[in-house]
Write a structure and sequence with these properties.
The structure holds two protein chains of two kinds. By secondary structure, chain A is mainly α. Chain A is built from five helices and no strands. Chain A has a single domain, classed as 3 helical TM bundles of succinate and fumarate reductases (Up-down Bundle), CATH 1.20.1300. In chain A, α1 crosses α5 and α4 packs antiparallel against α5. By secondary structure, chain B is mainly alpha-helical. Chain B has a single domain, classed as 3 helical TM bundles of succinate and fumarate reductases (Up-down Bundle), CATH 1.20.1300. Chain B has four helices and no strands. Classes of the chains: A mainly alpha, B mainly alpha.
């Protein structure tokens, strides 16, 4: 063919990354906050039955309340609760950041990076506090 | 202005747009987020001020009718918020229409189930 493009190299294609590439793919802090917002949201959705069941136990009667205390004294349950606390706190703090972005506050690249790191600076210590409380440190 | 070519069967004056339910959902997701944040802060404040509650103190929080209603509204906001979020996840990752529709239907049914369950939990106290 006589097309002027015939000899040129194939244009690079940037497709969506595949699941197998996720671990090698390094996201900037705002991207990390974004995917964690989705992961934590999905986690909260999937654990809805557990949370509602615990809420039910906590309110129905003194007997069910003590059943809840027994159930949540197991370390594995505590670990799940810590995971839930983290998911909730991350989703909450990152969500407030998104509401700010919706109001066009901090949309510049540097500000968005700072606020993304700020999400971790707030949500992780709070999650740690929740973990210490759940494991009965205080 | 000359009439621009239009798709078959649609006049030139007619704007071809969607039903705007996407904008509605976008706004509702933010509105429910604000409501949930407010409820979280409110409940956290009450728990911190309440100190060690035990069963009696905890159950007493949910006895007044206004608290049942506020909590139910918060939970309904949560379920609607969850619907929009989970729907987005299905739309992003599940391409076959049949499977996606089935998952979306199960999500709706499950959230409605949770809503009814919430009423039962709150109104038993």
């Amino acid at each position: 063919m006589n097309s002027p493009f015939a000899a040129s190299k194939p244009r690079p294609e940037f497709r969506n990354i595949h699941v197998s590439q996720i671990l090698k793919y390094k996201l900037p802090p705002p991207g990390m906050v974004s995917i964690m917002h989705r992961v934590s949201g999905a986690l909260l959705f999937l654990t809805l039955p557990l949370v509602l069941w615990l809420f039910d136990l906590s309110l129905t009667s003194e007997i069910s309340y003590s059943r809840l205390a027994d159930f949540s004294s197991h370390w594995l349950v505590k670990l799940v609760l810590v995971g839930l606390a983290w998911a909730f706190l991350h989703h909450l703090v990152a969500g407030v950041r998104y509401l700010m972005l919706d109001l066009h506050i901090g949309v510049e690249k540097a500000a968005a990076r700072t606020s993304a790191l700020g999400v971790y600076a707030i949500s992780l210590p709070l999650a740690l506090l929740a973990a210490l409380k759940i494991f009965g440190v205080f | 202005m000359a009439a621009s070519p239009s798709p078959a069967g649609i006049g030139s004056k007619r704007l071809v747009v969607g039903a705007h339910y996407g904008v509605g959902n976008f706004l509702l997701q933010r509105l429910t987020a604000v409501a949930l944040t407010a409820f979280t802060l409110f409940l956290a404040l009450r728990l911190v001020l309440g100190g060690q509650l035990g069963y009696d103190g905890w159950a007493a929080l949910f006895v007044p009718l206004w608290m049942k209603i506020v909590t139910l509204v918060a939970l309904l906001a949560l379920f609607y918020h969850a619907w929009i979020g989970v729907r987005d996840i299905w739309m992003d990752y599940v391409k076959p229409t049949g499977i996606r529709l089935a998952l979306q239907m199960l999500t709706v049914l499950w959230l409605v189930f949770c809503a009814v369950w919430s009423v039962q939990i709150l109104w038993r106290v």
